[in-house]
Specification:
single chain, Spore Coat Polysaccharide Biosynthesis Protein SpsA, Chain A, eight-stranded mixed β-sheet, about 15% strand
């Protein structure tokens, strides 16, 4: 069994080093282009749709951030109230009465998912491009302007941005602030090989004709932004990212809310994987990289959690029995001969991987270092690297369980 586990550990080490070196080589080849954005030759007409359900605390700020955008061809800001039960509708109505650009819509009945409200609002957009912004997100003034130039390439169907955490007062928010910055940097790296796999809800812009061609968002999927991106990739379209374009979003500020969000993300991920399973090893970058990458990540995460549980339980049981019988026999519980300080190849690989991972993390953070992140410190980085990330395999296991039990609520 130990030899088998050694092989497994070496395989995990190989996969880890493979992706670290992959990201590193892509970065080194393209590091001069990290912040580059094609200059727009023309301004495409644009509508932005904002789905809203019980967001009275944030919707006003979201609308104001959209009004502050410096993109001259923003024709409509379509706010879709999904039958809110709080004061959201009245707040939106006040803005709509004051600003002609704002269109207020209300769904006939609550759709229960963001995709429903998004699709409803998209029916009222007749522009070349259509953008989507969550009702608790705040695009920066020049964010959209920096995204438009990518659409000069006719194969580009969507452009995403750097999604960052707005509030960082609580520890769980600071950990997510680290995570989101690493994700943004990694997404840009993947963009250089055409493998961006999601256009997140806080800010994404699509070519309207391609969006309509695919029928909009899948309203049965809990992660409609991932599903639509995979749909676009399956048709041979490109998805790009503008790293300088920033949208700040409200992240979960309690462990319970964070856990529920991650379960939803992963259940939606399972839905998407199964929907596009027939593209495996086909359909270009989707079937040859994105889908295998997701499947491998899931498999390794769940299997790794199983090994961790087995080793932990086995060690506890062995120590318990050894201590029990040592006390009964009045012998030493621990002797110096049992302490192994000899060099170990697995220890070497593990240490090297941890150091390289920390280097990559710090590199990613350095590219998004600005005044908004003064609260980020080394403790947050270490907590993210050694605690936060290690919790994820157990979320994957629970997500798989909830999917099998058909617990797929928003």
């Amino acid at each position: 069994m130990l030899e088998f586990l050694t092989i497994i550990y070496l395989f995990y080490a190989f996969i880890g080093f493979y992706f670290l070196f992959f990201y590193g080589l892509v970065y080194l080849k393209n590091k001069e282009q990290i912040f580059s954005c094609p200059k727009a030759i023309k301004n495409y007409s644009l509508s932005i749709v904002v789905p809203c359900y019980n967001e009275e605390k944030s919707i006003g700020g979201t609308i104001q951030s959209l009004l502050n955008l410096n993109y001259p061809d923003l024709k409509k800001i379509i706010i879709v109230d999904d039958c809110s039960t709080d004061n959201s509708f009245n707040i939106i109505k006040e803005y709509a009465e004051k600003y002609p650009k704002i269109v207020l819509l209300k769904t006939p009945k609550n759709t229960g998912k963001a995709a429903g409200a998004k699709n409803y609002g998209a029916k009222f957009a007749n522009t070349e491009l259509i953008g989507f912004v969550d009702a608790d997100s705040y695009p920066q003034k020049d964010s959209v302007k920096n995204m438009i130039g990518f659409f000069q390439n006719k194969k580009v169907a969507a452009v995403t941005a750097s999604i960052l955490v707005k509030e960082k007062d609580k520890f769980i928010e600071r950990l997510q602030a680290v995570e989101y910055r690493i994700i943004a940097f990694t997404r840009k790296i993947l963009g250089f090989v055409g493998a961006i796999y999601v256009t997140p809800g806080p800010l994404a812009v699509y070519r309207k004709s391609y969006f309509d061609e695919l029928g909009g968002f899948d309203e049965e999927n809990l992660t409609e932004d991932i599903e639509l991106t995979w749909n676009l990739l399956s048709k041979g379209y490109r998805v790009e990212m503008s790293l300088p374009s920033k949208a700040y979003t409200v992240a979960p500020n309690t462990l319970k809310a964070w856990y529920r969000q991650r379960i939803r993300w992963n259940v939606g991920g399972i839905q998407t994987i199964l929907k596009y399973r027939k593209t495996f090893a086909r359909k270009g970058i989707l079937g040859c990289f994105v889908l295998p990458f997701f499947v491998l990540s899931w498999t390794l995460g769940i299997f790794g959690a199983g090994i961790l549980i087995y080793r932990g339980a086995r060690r506890l049981l062995v120590h318990y029995l050894a201590t029990k019988y040592s006390v009964a026999a009045q012998t030493a519980v621990l002797t110096l001969r049992e302490i192994n300080l000899a060099p170990n190849i697995l220890l070497f690989f593990g240490t090297a991987f941890i150091l390289l991972s920390l280097f990559y993390t710090l590199l990613a953070l350095s590219y998004l270092k600005e005044k908004e992140f003064k609260k980020t410190n080394l403790f947050s980085v270490l907590a993210y690297s050694f605690v936060y990330v290690l919790a994820y395999p157990f979320i994957l296991i629970n997500s798989a369980y909830k999917y099998l039990k058909k617990k797929r609520s928003w």
